[in-house]
Write a structure and sequence with these properties.
CBS-domain; 4-stranded mixed β-sheet; elongated; 7-stranded mixed β-sheet; about 50% helix; 3 domains
Length: about 400
């Protein structure tokens, strides 16, 4: 999702706000401040309605953030990395690095979100009672009650046994535990998700026809559920086809490590030859700084070659989707959200090589219905070998490490 605003980090997890959140905040503020609050509690100054509705909208966003943070923190506890949490129009998304290793971990990661929403609902219900006991302002009481009911609704809705909702992931964990088949369990969960989505769309349409515009929200949520379920179904089918294929089996562009402080001229004047690999630009302490296409060396102006270093020319690691060498392709594809990026494969901090977008597209097209398929552990080229480029090392005087063996 593009067009996001960074909100900082919690426990090392990046938090960001999608631009569409402005739409839901604006809608809630408008509906509460202009219609619902004045109708329910007439007689207050207009400015207080707008203050109360703004507070309700912001507290709702905080509630959604707590829900997603719960997923992320439990995922971290179970050994999964978390790239980021993005809040957007219909809630939030915690981007995990990979998938749960066991049904038990899947169950805990999925179940904690609704649990936290239920706790937050209870906090707002308690706040409603305390405010009423203290005879606080009516607007404060009704906003607390509204948020309690809304968080309770979020909890109940997310517990529905339909992917991509948390209840769908709980269903997947249960089926996975009973059958031992992760991806077949995922397919069952996506079927229930599609069914729920179509029911929401149909119910919203009936509501629009009979009661007015209130049903548009149900139709919008239903459309999102249908689309997300279809995407997860595609991913599950791909996962079944890929099996245990590792991402380093798909490396088609090898890497050659070079010191980052070498000048372009030093490299070009050496006996180093371009064998089709990319350059892994490494500091003297072994830290990988970036990747560099050797063709860019020749594109450097002659008068700059002696003063420009490889580190200056290298593309930073942030330009790539990174993956561990022994990670499964399915796990990597679960977070591969930018088809323009190459996947940089790392083995304990050392660059193994790149999987370009064209290779990902080729493998996916082969493994979808009608494709030729790919044997787990086999080379994409079909030669039965490692599938890794094995470049010749440059001269010893600048080589930072040991050559990776097949």
């Amino acid at each position: 999702m593009t067009g996001t605003i960074p909100l900082g980090r919690v426990a090392g997890i990046r938090l960001q706000l999608h631009w569409s959140v402005a739409g839901i905040i604006g809608l809630i503020i408008f509906m509460l401040g202009a219609y619902w609050l004045p109708t329910t509690l007439p007689g207050h100054a207009t400015v207080f309605y707008w203050i109360a509705s703004t507070a309700a909208a912001l507290l709702l966003i905080v509630s959604v953030l707590l829900h997603e943070l719960a997923h992320a923190l439990v995922a971290l506890r179970h050994g999964l990395g978390v790239d980021k949490i993005t809040l957007w129009l219909l809630g939030g998304v915690a981007r995990l690095r990979g998938e749960a290793a066991t049904p038990r971990a899947e169950l805990f990661i999925a179940g904690v979100g609704p649990l936290v929403s239920g706790v937050v609902a209870g906090v707002f219900v308690l706040a409603t009672w305390v405010l009423a006991t203290l005879q606080a302002g009516q607007l404060a009481i009704i906003v607390a009650a509204y948020l309690g009911v809304l968080n309770l609704a979020v909890m109940v809705f997310n517990l529905l046994p339909a992917a991509p909702l948390d209840g769908g992931r709980i269903l997947r964990a249960v089926i996975w535990s009973r059958t031992g088949q992760r991806f077949k369990a995922a397919l069952w969960a996506t079927r229930t998700g599609a069914g729920l989505g179509f029911l929401l769309i149909a119910g919203g349409f009936v509501s629009v026809v009979t009661r007015g515009l209130e049903g548009i929200w149900a139709m919008l949520v239903g459309l999102f559920v249908v689309q997300a379920a279809a995407a997860e179904r595609q991913q599950a089918r791909l996962g079944m086809a890929l099996g245990d294929t590792r991402i380093d089996d798909l490396v088609t562009v090898g890497s050659t490590p070079l010191w980052s402080d070498l000048s372009v001229g030093q490299v070009l004047e050496s006996q180093f030859g371009n064998d089709g690999s990319v350059l892994a630009v490494v500091d003297r302490d072994g830290t990988l700084r970036g990747m560099l296409d050797p063709r860019r060396l020749h594109g450097t102006a002659g008068y700059e070659r002696d003063r420009r270093t490889l580190r200056e020319l290298a593309d930073p690691l942030s330009e790539f989707t990174t993956a561990a060498a022994r990670e499964t392709v399915t796990s990597v594809l679960a977070r591969y959200d930018d088809p323009r990026r190459s996947i940089l494969v790392l083995d304990e901090g050392r660059a193994v090589g790149l999987v370009p977008p064209s290779e990902i597209q080729r493998v996916v097209s082969e493994l979808m219905p009608g494709g030729s398929g790919l044997r787990p552990g086999a080379s994409p080229g079909g030669d039965g070998g490692s599938g890794h480029a094995d470049p010749s090392p440059p001269p010893d005087w600048w080589y930072p490490g040991q050559r990776r063996e097949r």
